[in-house]
Amino acid sequence: MQIVSAQKGDAEFIIAFNQKMALETENRRLPDDVIGPGVHAMLDDPQKGLYLLAKNENGEILGQLMVTFEWSDWRNATFWWIQSVYVAPEARRQGVYRLLHERVRTMAQESQKACGIRLYVEKENRGAQKTYEDLGMHHSHYFMYEEDWWAN
Question: Could you tell me the domains of the chain?
């Protein structure tokens, strides 16, 4: 398996995976006219973040994640936020996410500008929580609050 940075030509796969992930985890449908430009905006502007893809030996995309950046003035460094995680059902429990996560960790550490990795997970998604804990992550002392002006 190979972990690669997504390119503009991967946009349709990322869009489809994001739509599947939203439906599966939150029962939300992401409209093409919103998610499409959103994915392209990220691919067009590396300052927004990046996508990583897990591909098998045939070049098929088995999983993805997105990384965005949060500046921490307390640490004078950047947290790398893992988001938009999706692994194709037939590829789950085969180490796909582990490889993606390890690549993010390596990239963040090598950047010498990162102070850690963060992510959020649905409260009921015990399987994902266990996966993250098995990779060395721990529950933070923060709760997440939001004002979601887009929610439908």
Answer: 2-134 (3.40.630.30)
Helix-helix angle 32-44:11-26, to 10 degrees: 130
pLDDT tens for 80-99 read: 999 999 999 999 999 999 99
Q: Name residue 19's amino acid.
A: Q
Look up residue 23 and give its DSSP letter: H
Pick the closest to residue 39 from 62, 16, 58, 57 (CA basis).
16
Distance CA 64, CA 53 (A): 4
Please identify which residue in the block is written with the tokens 């067009």: 44
Confidence (pTM): 0.92
- Torsion sign across C-alpha atoms 136, 2, 24, 7: positive
